[in-house]
Amino acid sequence: MEGSYFNLISQTVEFPQEGFEVIEDELHFNGINLMDIIEQYGTPLKISYLPKIGQQITKAKRMFNVAFAKTDYKGTYTYCYCTKSSHFSFVLEEVLANGAQLETSSAYDIQIIRALAEDGKIAKNLTIVCNGFKRDVYQEYLCELINDGFENVIPVLDNMNELNYYEKFLTKKTKLGIRIASEEEPKFEFYTSRLGIRYDAIVDFYKNQILNNPKFELKMLHFFINTGIKDSIYYWSELNKCLKVYCDLKKICPELDSLNIGGGMPIKTSLNFEYDYEYMIEAIVEKIKHLCEENDVPEPNLFTEFGSYTVGESGATLYSVLDQKQQNDSELWSMIDSSFITTLPDTWGISQRFILLAINNWDKEYQRVQLGGITCDSMDYYNSEAHLNQVFLPKPDGSSPQYLGFFHTGAYQESLGGYGGIQHCLVPAPKHVLIDLDESDEVVTRLFAKEQSFKSMLKILGY
C-alpha cells in the first residue's frame, strides 16, 4: 500500500470522514458502494442520495434550537428551502417530508406550488416566502395564490413600485416582507446590491405606503448578502445595519415579528473543509438577541433560506476514464466519458471546485493527471482540487477501468447547464439515479432519467 492512492488521500486530509469511506479499495458514499451503482447503471451517471436532504434540514433545526436554548431566545425558527437550487420533484418532496417551508424566486415557482397542492403534497397554510425582482406574471401568480386562500404567502418587496400591483389585484389582507439592499463586499465591482430597498429608505417607505393601508401588514424584514454566512467583519457589519433597521421599524410597526437572515450556509466542497456551524448559528442568535434587548424590542422569529446547504451534499457525478494521452513531458490527460460543460457547468463557468475522488483502485499507485472532457472546447477540463491545486488518480494497470466521482454536486448544475435541452457539442446529459432507504434501511435505487437521446435534441433543432 506504500505509495498508493489510499495513502495519498489519508496522509493529505483527514480520512475517512463523514460520508466517505473506503472498503476493499472501493469508495462508499454515505454508506453506498458506488461500484455497485456503476455496475448496475454504468457511467456517466448522476446520483442523488435523498436521505442526505432530510439530514441537513434536521441538523440545521437542531443547531438553531440548541442556540435558542443556550441564549434563552424567545422567538421561533423556520427553515425554508429555496427552490432555485434544484427544482426537481424528488427534492421538493423530500424537503416537504422533513417539515421545511419554501422560498421562491420566479413566476414558474408558483406553478410548482400549484402542482404540489393539486397532488395533496402541501396545504394552504404552508409558509411561502416569495423573493426576487418580480415581473407582472410573477406578481399575477402571487395574487392568485393569495386570493385562493394560501394564507402564509409572503411577497418580499424588492422595490417600492411592487406594492402598487398588490394594491390593485389582491382581495385578501396580505403579509409582506421587505428586502434590504445590503452593501456588497469591498472587493465587489459595485457597492450596493441591485436587489432590495436601501437601508435609509425603508422606514419612510413603510410610513408612507404600508402603515395606514388596511390591505397589508408588514411581517418580515429580509437580509441577505452574496458572500453567505461567514465569520467576517463584513458579515457582522451588515447584520448590525440590518438589526438597526429592524429595531427602528419594530418600534412603529408592532405586527413586524420576523427576520429572514437569508441563505448562504456553506457546504463541503473540499475534504479539508472547516466551518463551525454551531458557533456561527449561536453567535448570530446571540447578536440578534443582544441588539434587540439594547433597543428594548422583542427578538424576532428567525427564518433561513438554505438552498445549496439543503441539497448540495446529496449529489454526485460519476465518470469512467476512457483513455490516457501523454501530450508533453508534464501533462498526462485522462479523458472522461462525458463533458464537464454538460454535466458540471460550475467547474468551467465559475471555476467551482468539488470533492474529487477515485471510486476504485485505491490500492494502486497514484499519478498526477489532467481531466479532459470529450468535447472540442478548450475549457472542457478540470485540473485542480481545492486542497491540492492538482489532480491525482490511481495509475491504471489494465486490469479494470478507472472510475472517479465528483461529490456534493446536488445544487444548481441543471439550473446552470440546462436539463433536457441542447447540450454542448451534443454530448448527452447522463442518466440520473435516485438512491433512497426503505423502511428497513435497505438501499433502494430507481432510474429518474435515462441518458438523453439524440432524438430529443434533434427534435429541438427542428429535424
Q: In angstroms, what separates the terminal alpha carbons? A: 54 Å
The biggest sheet, with number of strands, parallel, antiparallel or mixed sense and barrel status, is:
10 strands, mixed
Envelope shape? globular
Question: What structural class do you assign from the helix and strand content?
Answer: alpha/beta
Please give the CATH architecture of the largest domain: Alpha-Beta Barrel
Beta strand count: 21
The rounded Rg comes to: 24 Å
**What name goes with the CATH superfamily of the largest domain?**
Alanine racemase
User: CATH top level of the largest domain?
Assistant: Alpha Beta
Task: Tell me about this structure.
With 463 residues, this protein is of the alpha/beta class. Helices cover 33% and strands 23% of the residues. The strands form three sheets. Strands 4, 13, 14, 15, 16, 17, 18, 19, 20 and 21 form a ten-stranded mixed β-sheet that branches. Strands 5-6-7-8-9-10-11-12 form an eight-stranded parallel β-barrel, surrounded by four helices. A three-stranded antiparallel β-sheet has the order 1-2-3. α7 (162-169) links the parallel β8 and β9. α8 (199-210) runs parallel beside α9 (233-252). The protein is globular. The protein starts with a helix and ends with a helix. The mean pLDDT is 90.
